[in-house]
Design goal:
Length: 151
């Protein structure tokens, strides 16, 4: 990220709200409240290698950050979601190859990830994507707080 580069772009939020500052303000405040939960979940799921959880929180956070015009962070989350699902697919494939019976939860996960094209090779990207999300979020929140003062 270069000096002075904006992480947020509220044009979508303004368009969606009909440029209603009270709605914009409320949406920003809700988002700022969500960020600690997102960052804690990403950190915990990554540290425990819970690929299902990591993929799910990346998916959930992705739409929120994109609403705030945080496209670069949204891209990190989209890749994180796909690589996490790819890794989950890899783990489930190994279980199936070893003849280990899948639990009902594993069966459900398998139906969700069996068509993922990413695989464990891309696992090496996950730490960088987690770092991208965790390092850019506080900067983006600061930008949003600054924007709130201008509304």
């Amino acid at each position: 990220m270069t000096q002075g580069e904006q992480l947020t772009d509220l044009s979508y939020l303004k368009e969606m709200s009909g440029n209603d500052n009270s709605i914009i303000e409320e949406m920003i405040e809700i988002f700022i409240e969500q960020i600690p939960e997102f960052t804690e979940e990403v950190t915990n799921y990554f540290e425990t290698q819970n690929w299902e959880g990591l993929g799910a929180v990346a998916h959930k956070a992705k739409s929120s950050v994109r609403t705030m015009g945080m496209d670069s962070i949204g891209d990190c989350l989209e890749q994180l979601e796909h690589f996490s699902k790819g890794n989950l697919k890899f783990e489930l494939q190994i279980k199936k190859e070893k003849g280990i019976e899948l639990s009902p939860k594993d069966e459900k996960n398998w139906s969700n990830v069996m068509h993922e094209t990413t695989n464990d090779v891309e696992m090496k990207h996950i730490p960088d994507l987690v770092e991208c999300f965790l390092s850019k979020c506080p900067l983006a929140v600061d930008e949003l707080k600054s924007n709130l003062k201008k509304l």
